[in-house]
Amino acid sequence: MRAIVLDGPVTPEEMRVRRVAVPEPPAGWVRIKVEAFGLNRSEYHLRAGFATNARFPVIPGIEAAGTVDLAPGGEFAAGQQVVAMMGGMGREYDGGYAEYTVVPASSVIPVRTDLDWATLGALPEMLQTAHGSLHTGLAIEPGQSLLIRGGTSSVGVAAAVLAKEHGLTVFSTTRNPQRTQVLRELGVDHPIVDDGNVAEKVREIVPTGVHAALELVGTNALPDTLKATAVHGTVCFTGMLSDTWTIPDFYPMDYIPNGVRLTAYGGESEDLPAEAFQRYVDLVAAGKLPIRIDRVFTMEEIGAAHRVMEDGAAVGKLVVRVGAPAT
Questions:
Q1: Which CDD domains match (predicted)?
Q2: Measuring CA to CA, how many Å separate 260 from each of 11, 104, 306?
Q3: How many CB atoms within 10 Å of residue 78?
């Protein structure tokens, strides 16, 4: 089969498609014929050498969409439409950047949809992270206000759409003033240009601060995000778009404003129940959940896709459609 294999950290331009053996699934695992997979910041960290739990060689990819090819334990039927995500994919064992991937049955979610494969391939990790951040990390409620820091990322886009669907007022940031219109088209109530002083801009609109905030940029933006949040409000740290992960000399009494709660989210596929994923997919298919795909690539264009991701040039999700080689 065709697959992208990493022997160690490389530049995007050094990524190549190889021919490798089709993997065999043991009991309790499922072999999926991959039709599409989304790109994620986690894979950039792995490819660039930032991942602390990396093992090489490895086929990267923490998600995939396709059909069941073989399930020795009978958990799924051959030909069944499924998605898979997390659970060690692309790190502890080979992931989704291939024509076939073998994953634990616990990481597989069945789905029924007429969506095209590229669209379905964009959804698993994006929806899982957004859903988990909003409901596990922030415990959002209708009528609340939400700030999304890093709003034009794929998770930021999904979080805005899911939050609006849940009845929240959404503030969302972008560093590029030209992207505020994209946020408005997604239903964001208050697009904000991030110049480092988002808290001040938020409190000009809602003086007491927002009920909830989703931090996707990193620890460099976190203090300002905390300042934008109301007393008894919650900030969930989920993303590190800036690649700034740690807080030097962390002193909670000085760092966290009085009465503001700081949580984190880094969940797994079980945080997105199958019925919730199916509902979201159905809403996407009905045009009621406007998920944004920035670009769709072939496997042979994986280097170009990673270059776009590394440069932060995408608004929404980057997807690879697995199929015939590019000509």
A1: quinone_oxidoreductase_like_1
A2: 40, 38, 36
A3: 11
Amino acid at 294: D
Report yes or no: 45 and 13 within 8 Å, Cβ to Cβ: no
Domain 2-123+291-321 CATH class label? alpha beta
Distance CA 37, CA 125 (A): 10
How many other CB atoms are there within 10 angstroms of residue 310's CB atom? Answer: 14
Write the single-letter amino acid at 147: L
In sequence order, what DSSP letters do the residues of 242-309 get, joined into one string?
TS----TT--HHHHSPTT-EEEE----GGGS-HHHHHHHHHHHHTTSS-PPEEEEE-GGGHHHHHHHH
* Selection from 236, 264, 271, 238 nearest residue 128 by Cα: 271
User: According to the CATH classification, is domain 127-264 in 3.40.50.720?
Assistant: yes
pLDDT, tens digit, 9 for 90 and up, residues 211-244:
999 999 999 999 999 999 999 999 999 988 888 8
CB-based contacts of 318: which residues, under 8 Å, 6+ apart? 38, 39, 154, 293, 294, 295, 297, 305, 308, 309
Which residue spans of the chain are classified as CATH 3.90.180.10?
Answer: 2-123+291-321
Angle between helices 124-132 and 154-165 (to 10 degrees): 60
